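Tutorial, part two.
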Amino acid sequence: MRRSRNVKIVATLGPASDTYEMIRALHEAGADVFRLNMSHGTHDEIAAKHAIIRRIEGDVGTPIAILADLQGPKLRVGTFANDAEDLAEGAAFRLDLDPAPGDATRVCLPHPEIFAALKPGAHLLVNDGKIRLKVAACGADFADCIVVAGGTISNRKGVNVPDVVLPLAALSDKDRADLEFACDLGVDWLALSFVQRPEDVTEARALVRGRAAILSKIEKPAAVEAFDAILAVSDGIMVARGDLGVELPVQAVPPIQKRLVRRCRAAAKPVIVATQMLESMVTSPMPTRAEVSDVATAIYEGADAIMLSAESAAGQYPVEAVRTMDKVATEVEADPTYTQIIAASRSVRGDTVAHAIVAAAREIAETTDIKAICCFTQSGTTALLTARERPGVPIIAMTSLQRTARRLCLSWGCHCVMTGELGRFKEAVVSAARAARQGGFATETDQIVVTAGVPFNVPGTTNILRVAPCDERLIFTTDPG
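Running the prediction step on this input gives:
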């Protein structure tokens, strides 16, 4: 199924999208990647959705990526004797380890690791930042706070601690069980929540053991500060603007989004922009103009993918939300300004043969009448490097490895095609020409660029480029190899 755009769409599955008919409708409307949120649903329910996606993949004949998103440690206050209390600005309020029900003066915060890290002057945010507390004094089992922003606090509301790096592992016991389950299930990407430092990623990678690619969610100020180190050990990034917008001033999030997207592009690693992109479509068949502009901004920045959360998981109009994203992306990418912005923000090339090959492929494609760039890849690296160039023609990523094809479904512009194992470059050129014709990218009278590594089936050996005709007869008569 050929898309008329380069940016990919990630759709979260949930109660509103748990049947074969609905999930297939989402894919046909434009969803390239399906997100399974491990915070919701049992393992049996997650496995059922996974099986449906794989069945649809077989029915439509194109690879589909599956992303499992781990919950991460959840920090919450305890309960109140009256279920809820109103906190007035300027009032004193204590957090402690006492499990007794709370009142208007105190409540349990059953996380001693938070108290161990707190210092006077630090802030705690409750209920998505609606209530803001400032620490006046603290110890190993308490924090005496002043209410900076008041409101109603109720049972088990979430707590954010933006000012300190918490001595918490990114993986809870639930996450470890979910990780093993998801990897055994066969997901393609695993998203890590609550990442604060690169060690969080390396810990998860040791548990994953190569069974899935790792996507780090950037949702903490500490992760922003350590971003380059986190990016270096991650396979991809999600700019999770929900918690990021809670823990940082909201006006700081757009510049951070732009910087992170650009760094991911420079590193040739896919980046998803996520959270509340079409939030109003949870209950409305039409988005707001501001939401459409937000989606468009992420596309203009060159993000690999844009994501729907509640809109497709629990909303009333999941297919319409995907279709809206698809239309916005198609319109933006047809804008000449988009091409200019993408070209102006292209990163400096690397100094390897592979970097030179993919850069040359883009330049040839954009300065001559080339219809597509066909890159043969085993690990996916060549396709990622080609995608980093953001060429003005389609990228056909050809691989004999199903897991590579699925993972590349998240990467900008990659149209993934399965091919058999090849032994000679001529076979690769013939296979590329057929894929270009069958996918509607070119006709027999057109030309394509083919990149590959010789010897074949060895990762990291991209070393050859050819401008080839799409007519197989000409391939055989002009190439003796």
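The chain has a mean pLDDT of 94. In part three we will examine how such features are distributed along the chain.
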